[in-house]
Amino acid sequence: MTRFFSLLLATGLILSGCEVSQTQAEATVVPSDATTVEDAQPITNATVPEVLPEEVAWGQRRIKKIADKTREAVVEIHNHQRGVRGTGTYFKFKDHHIVLTAAHVVDGYNVMEVRAPSGESTPALVVLFDNSRPSDLAVLVVKEELLTRQPMKLKLREQIHDAIAEEVVYTGDPGHHRQMTIFGNIAGVQQDGSVIMHSYAWGGASGSSVFDNKGRLVGILKAVDVNRSRMSPFPQITEDMVWLSPGWLLNLEDLEKILKIYELMIELEGGGSQ
Known about the structure:
Blueprint: H1 3-6, H2 8-11, H3 53-73, E1 74-79, E2 84-93, E3 96-101, H4 103-106, E4 111-115, E5 121-130, E6 137-142, E7 152-153, E8 167-172, E9 180-189, E10 195-198, E11 209-211, E12 217-227, E13 236-246, H5 252-268
Parallel strand pairs: 2-7
Antiparallel strand pairs: 1-2, 1-4, 2-3, 3-6, 4-5, 5-6, 8-9, 9-10, 10-13, 11-12, 12-13
């Protein structure tokens, strides 16, 4: 057992969140539990900001640059314990190389394989896990830096309500596709804090990071909408109404503390810092 994996027991003390819901779908099928139309209660006090033409042009140029960055940072998350796959985004934060994904992708397990489009891969340790609604977030620390990926800076979009109608972008690995870059707009915010994006998502895109035109994390892709109508006994999946775990739920101060503990454990094991 390597030093990296010998930290599993100790790291379990700093994982946060509840147990993974047994009703959530596989990571290759975007989960729909607890995101039905009946459950969805919109925030009614959100307003659409006035946008001038020159601001639109500036925003379009900016969002294209962010889209390019997401393509250089996207990775696959392989959960070999369950035999499923999701999407993650490679970041650099406080001198650590980390990956953000959805909690239901890692599903409570501690070690994942992070794989770049080139085939380059590294083990990664789950150091933060939070699936307490509306959060669906996990943070992984990679054992080795990915040389074929360019990490993004971790910046959060703190104010979500003023993002209504803004253009956003993510890059994910849905289905048998790789590095699919998808644009959309923020459609609304639910009472539980979940962000609704008018875009498109399907199986395998879970865990993708969604960004605004300033490169700030808006949310983590967690689900598509499911309409359970009284007119039909069958649920209707609405792939263009996408649910996000709000990015602001990630407490960067707590994450920094967790990474310091991780770094200390590495040093105590004699392996040096990340």
